[in-house]
Design a protein that fits this description.
The protein has about 140 residues and is mostly beta strands. The protein has a single domain, classed as Cupredoxins -  blue copper proteins (Immunoglobulin-like), CATH 2.60.40. About 15% of the residues lie in helices and about 45% in strands. The chain is built from one helix and eleven strands, in the order αβββββββββββ. Strands 1, 2, 3, 4, 6 and 9 form a six-stranded mixed beta sheet that branches. The model has no long low-confidence stretch (mean pLDDT about 90).
């Protein structure tokens, strides 16, 4: 019993030090949205790509049964894109193959993550949370030129 308690204390100390060292904190100031009003709420009323600076973009996407809107986004190579996603219906996944982007898109919340696309090509955007019988048809693409 003593060994188990000591191991737990050591584990928690290591976790705490790592979290403080890497500045890992719980999310705060999360963006919320009324799921019933997604299609009327800017900027999700006109989802798509917006340039915010040199090689800096914001992409607003809506995940809904069983598609992403817009289905395709094209950005120049070397661009940093911050993705903002929400859903008006059920929980969806937002996974871009070949990147570290992997978010859960929950109705009522706006999820966000950024990635710098250094290589040209087409990146597959997938829903990786089961969202219903047409889940396997839910995909999109990010084209980097």
């Amino acid at each position: 019993m003593t060994a188990g308690v000591i191991t737990l204390i050591v584990f928690l100390c290591i976790l705490g030090v790592a979290a403080l060292h890497d500045n890992i904190v719980p999310p705060s100031h999360l963006q919320t949205i009324d799921p019933a009003q997604v299609s009327q709420t800017p900027p999700f009323d006109k989802p798509g790509l917006r340039k915010t600076g040199p090689k800096q973009y914001e992409a607003y996407l809506v995940a809904h049964i069983f598609a992403f809107t817009p289905e395709s986004i094209t950005v120049p190579a070397g661009s940093t894109v911050t993705f903002y996603a929400t859903s008006p219906d059920v929980v969806h996944g937002f996974f871009i193959a070949g990147t570290a982007i992997n978010m859960m898109v929950v109705p009522g919340w706006v999820s966000d993550d950024s990635h710098t696309f250094t290589k040209s090509g087409t990146y597959l955007l997938l829903c990786n949370e089961y969202c219903g019988s047409g889940h396997h048809f839910m995909y999109g693409k990010i084209v980097v030129q």
